[in-house]
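Human: For the file, kindly provide a plain-text protein record giving the amino acid sequence and the backbone structure tokens, at your earliest convenience.
Assistant:
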Amino acid sequence: MRAGAGAAPSGARRPVLVFDGDCGFCTRCVEFTRRWVRPDADIVAWQRADLAGLGVTAERAAHEVLWVTPPGAVSGGARAVAKVLLRAGGVWAPLGAVLTLPGVRLVAHAAYRVVADHRGRLPGGTASCGVADVGGPGGAP
């Protein structure tokens, strides 16, 4: 599936990477991922995804990138990035594995939040990259 195109079906056979299609920075990251990382996954903007079918809320999808497995397990933020890298295999898998280590996982989460919260100021970012105060995953701060 082309980045940003079409809604991911609820009966997906591959994992789905859900990103913010209105954010230029996020879209550039997805373009890099599709070109260089090449995970065996569908990639869809949350604005065009079947969120109910994926078992996620718009609030959570707006808050962080999501990795949804066919059985419905959802990982977000830095953990989703690690899952993408692990799924891609090759030279990317060791980096994904490192991101799952307990100490590194905490640092990766903090770094992800800083980037996500300031993505409108990063290269490729636009005013639409700003994350509204949606209260975090599931509406909780």
The mean pLDDT is 84. The beta strands are 16-19, 42-45, 66-68, 74-76. The longest strand covers residues 16-19. The longest helix spans residues 102-117.
